[in-house]
Design goal:
Layout: H1 2-14, H2 30-38, H3 43-46, E1 50-53, E2 63-66, E3 73-75, E4 87-89, H4 91-102, E5 112-116, E6 122-125, E7 140-143, E8 146-150, E9 171-173, E10 181-185
Parallel strand pairs: 1-3
Antiparallel strand pairs: 1-2, 3-4, 4-5, 5-8, 6-7, 8-10, 9-10
Helix pairs in contact: 1-4
Length: 192
């Protein structure tokens, strides 16, 4: 449970906060939150994943909406971000999120997969994992529905573009930081 809690708090760092006037309208009921969280990944993964809800207030603990059996953890749309950005993380990504939260280099010992396949996508910096708004040099923009890949050796990412490509192909996000990973855009999920 500690991993889930710190993972959920780490994910809050990934998404820039917005004023109340700019927040999207996230799912409100427990059933709607579970359904939204499940939309992030293929149903054979999200259907057996633990579903966690974001903390209700800063400093509060996240709430487990449903216990899972497959080691994956999914979260509904983050209420303080622009766009619909539910996500599902495997164990490697959960450890990665803990490192991001503590601002320590992650120990990526195996490949990892995370899903953010619901329509809407999120917004953020392609170069700075801690950016909260766009600047002239942080490649701020919309991330379409995607799969995220972690690899133990970042050197194998050579040759993959480091900028959001206009052609919709994969790109390396946060290159040159300990939090480097591959973003692979996909069509919005239609499997739910």
């Amino acid at each position: 449970m500690k991993r889930i809690i710190s993972g959920v708090l780490a994910l809050a760092v990934l998404a820039p906060t917005l004023s109340l006037a700019q927040q999207n309208d996230p799912p409100r009921s427990k059933a709607a939150k579970i359904q939204n969280a499940q939309s992030a990944a293929p149903s054979d993964i999200s259907g057996k994943a633990t579903i966690m809800d974001w903390p209700a207030a800063e400093g509060a603990q996240p709430v487990q909406l449903r216990a899972g059996t497959n080691g994956w953890v999914c979260y509904p749309d983050m209420p303080t971000t622009k766009g619909n950005d539910p996500m599902c993380l495997d164990a490697a990504w959960q450890k990665w999120a803990e490192a991001l939260m503590s601002k320590t280099p992650p120990e990526v010992s195996s490949a990892g997969v995370a899903y953010m396949m619901a329509s809407g996508g999120g917004w953020g910096s392609n170069t700075d994992p801690y950016a909260t708004k766009g600047t002239p040099d942080n490649e701020w923009g919309h991330d379409p529905p995607h799969i995220m890949l972690l690899v133990p050796d970042a050197a194998v990412l050579q040759g993959i573009p480091k900028h959001r490509p206009a052609n919709g192909g994969p790109w390396v996000m946060w290159s040159g930081t300990p939090y480097v990973h591959v973003m692979v855009p996909v069509a919005p999920s239609k499997h739910q």
